[in-house]
Predict the 3D structure of the following.
Amino acid sequence: MARKGLNDQVREANASLHISKRGLDLIKHFEGYHDRLPDGRCKAYLDTIANPPVWTIGYGCTEGVTEGMIWTEEQAERELLREIAIHELEVKRLIKVPLNQYQFDALVSFSYNYGLARAKTLRGHVDRGDFQAAGNSLVQVYPVVRGKGVISGLLRRRKAERDLMWTLPPKEVVASSRKLTLLSRIRSTLLALLPVGAFSDYLGYFEQVKDYIVDKKYFFILALFFGAWMLMKWFENKSIEDHENGNYTPSKATSYTEENEVDVDAINNDTEASFDEAPVSELDTEYGPAIRGAGEASGTVAQ
């Protein structure tokens, strides 16, 4: 059997990734649902923040959209997921390192809004595994629209994408914390011990276990074990929630330092260089250099 190359291993590692609910919610929040009509449907609008302006509808969809087009909310949801699936493939095609779920979500959100193929600076940092620099480049380089400067809505979005990129998925929060890893092992042990008493008595292995069951002490011990398991599981879930809210960093997790100074000129060099370097993709052809998300960028989405 031929030995798999590094790129094949990376593709396999990322192949199973798809946008999570948290990533989808981020995209929907910042794209907004526009232009909403009184009956709940939406009508195409001209996104003037994009350069050049582009007709957009629903949750930032642009493909095949023309003036006067009207969609139902269900249609907007369906088309959003269809377009996101294209960007998922684009992230998997362009990125050369394994990603965790939230790193993938952040890059899909960015690709949907800006286009990953032409983001040379960001891709370079990610492909080196430097997510400190990658996260900061989102804020320093990509809230800028050429000829229009920094767009406040894009800056908020980039910070949200950076925060998501730097957040560990739940399983990795546990694996990156000595305390939570220990508690997880204790919980697994308790779970394995719960049926031991009854099973051992059934087989007649331990007379003392039979005495516990007769005296109902076993069930008391079982209740204690179950209570301890529940308490440790609650602590684990609380730690994961605190991490996602930025209030807890696992002991073995990478610490990141925010750098928020925007380089207004960097996007010009980044974009022009990436057009020359990046392979032409389906996205390049369909969407061109438009930056999407005017609804949130103009401040019409709830903060």
